[in-house]
């Protein structure tokens, strides 16, 4: 079995996750050493450094001869189902290159990027323009197996109507936008989680996207992660409204998306995020409601 050390805090957190159509976090963690060892043997890899972890995945730097790669093992859950398919579709254009995969096991072999260099500390305007430029390259026709936004959002829209903590105006606005926007969904391949930490330096210094949560839909749906992260830099009151619209405009322009269309799709997503935030505590809910208001005013 693989002797790759997994961070204790990450193991403890993931072990609490209930099953989402596959094994629970605790059940999957028992399989991780075997999955890693089988992948190392299958692809003739040697471990080349300590493991890094994301919310639901472990990434191990490896080598195959002189080739530097990254071995990723992902906890099976709906958002991760089509990660390998999306990366294969993009073929390394704007995103990390997929070298090999065992999608049914959540095992991906990727080119190795610079995991210490992302957009988290980059000036926000520049970071938004970088992400918008990447999105312009990633928005290709989605493979048929990738679910559309209507399917993806249906359970969230149904749940938000039953959550008393979601302001009624947000429920009504979100459902109205869904009725208006979803029938015109163009079915492009969306990353949906391209925030500042999900862009890394790669070959020849190029910025590349990682960790997609693929859905087929309208490119305007992609802006939210750049608003919901680095929130402390947005200010309050009138400054918050200006900053939110400014970021949105930068991303939309760089991605080649009409700004008002992007605002409408982002407002739809913001409403869904308000609903989600009711499960994460008062601070998260307050933040999401403020962002929703800044977009809608």
TrEMBL record:
> Please, one GO biological process term?
secondary metabolic process
Return the InterPro entries for the record: Kinase-like_dom_sf, NH2Glyco/OHUrea_AB-resist_kin
Q: Which one of the record's GO molecular function terms can you name?
A: phosphotransferase activity, alcohol group as acceptor
Checking Pfam families in the record gives: APH_6_hur
- What is the official name of this protein in its record? Streptomycin 6-kinase
